[in-house]
Amino acid sequence: MVYTVGEAAKQIKVAASTLRYYDKEGLLPFVERSDGGIRLFKAEDMSMLKTIECLKKTGMPIKEIKHFIDCCVEGDARIDERLAIIKDQQASVIEQMQELQEMLDMLDFKRWYYETAQSAGTCSVHDGLPIEAVPEQFRKYLNKQD
Fold this sequence. Notes:
Layout: E1 2-3, H1 5-12, H2 16-24, E2 32-33, E3 39-42, H3 43-57, H4 62-74, H5 79-120
Antiparallel strand pairs: 1-3, 2-3
């Protein structure tokens, strides 16, 4: 099966203009074109498009994605480099997830803080609150709050 830009874009849930941009940036050297210059995405191209989109969503810059694609196009001689790139990006995603978890924990605390303040009608409710009254996971945040 062969897909047009619009059909391929719909499959990976991006705008057609995104695929055109990727092509312009050299990320799609594997995509064939019709005699009229129309991009023709084959079924096997869809896997690579999904990989590109995954790497983009993880924060990898276009330049680095292009390097990864170039390594893929070169074949088995670059397997070690491709694996290293994926491992590095995986480590980066794990770090991002830890940072996001820390942000979510802080937001959970702030929600608790303001919900208890709202119930009491004042933020000063926390001033005399015994430590035991504060949920254990929030105790590390205790100090002057905004």
